[in-house]
Design brief:
Order of helices and strands: EHEHEHEHEHEHHHE
Radius of gyration: 18 Å
Number of helices: 8
Low-confidence stretches: 200-213
Strand content: 5-15%
Shape: globular
Number of strands: 7
Length: about 260
């Protein structure tokens, strides 16, 4: 089976939440494709066990240009600073809104502070990340691409996840709505929708949610047709494809990277 090859040389790509997990895999994928990659995260160091090289340094080792900008996407001022940093490399060509937080808790126990944190990061961060990147593209008279990290939770409710599902459903509509409004500027907006990705099991899911999703042996009650949980790298190819010219007639769409889970 052939492997797709993308060329993002001379393009500047912002990836929010690029220090770990799906964001790191996407950032490294763009780095391998020759892009200048700006990792926008609240922390520089990777979170994964056994990884100690920051994302931007790994990209530099590949021979591409990498940059780290400390960014809390819940703060609009921080996003504005991020866009200014990207202008030092010519401006934003691709914006990947990926930074998000997850909180698993029974609906009746969710507090206001927990919900506000999810909404500010997962919705406001994506909304204004898209807006500011689009303004930069329009000001420069360039077309561009925006890729959001949605989720299977954008379509399917999951146990103990009402508050998280609500934010991922909002990301779906931010994607579709901005795709409609920005089409006249030749700016495409799409989303990837990861399924059961290994990092989410180990770091994001509560024990109660995992118990609800699996049987006594830890197998999923609803099987994954491809027979395994996903890995962060499984999402990188989809993100690069949606940002590339190969997807030039695709906008307002969401690509599910879930091993067929939502097909059942």
């Amino acid at each position: 089976m052939g492997i797709a090859s993308f060329d993002f040389s001379d393009e500047t790509v912002i990836v929010t939440g690029g220090s770990a997990g799906i964001g790191r895999a996407i950032a490294l994928g763009f780095g391998e494709a020759g892009a200048t990659v700006v990792n926008a995260d609240v922390r520089e160091d990777p979170k994964m066990e056994g990884e100690d090289t920051p994302t931007h340094e790994r990209i530099e080792e590949m021979g591409s240009t990498g940059e780290y900008v400390e960014t809390d996407v819940a703060e609009v001022d921080a996003l504005e600073t991020l866009i200014e940093a990207a202008r030092e490399f010519g401006g934003v060509d691709v914006m990947v809104n990926n930074a998000a937080v997850q909180h698993s808790e029974r609906f009746l126990d969710v507090g206001q502070e927990d919900l506000d944190t999810l909404l500010h990061t997962n919705v406001r961060g994506y909304f204004f990340g898209t807006q500011l990147a689009a303004r930069d593209m329009i000001d420069r008279g360039d077309s561009g691409s925006i890729v959001n990290t949605a989720s299977i939770s954008s379509e399917v409710a999951q146990h103990d996840q009402v508050q998280y599902d609500a934010t991922k459903g909002a990301i779906k509509m931010v994607t579709k709505g901005t795709a409609l409004e920005l089409a006249t500027h030749d700016i495409r907006v799409n989303a990837i929708a990861p399924g059961q990705i290994a990092t989410e099991f180990t770091e994001g899911w509560s024990e109660e949610a995992q118990d609800a999703a699996g049987d006594e042996e830890g197998e999923f009650i609803k099987p994954i047709p491809l027979g395994r949980a996903g890995h962060p790298e499984d999402n990188a190819g989809a993100a690069l494809f949606l940002a590339s010219d190969a997807a030039s007639y695709i906008t307002g769409d969401m690509v599910f990277v879930d091993g067929g889970w939502t097909a059942i």
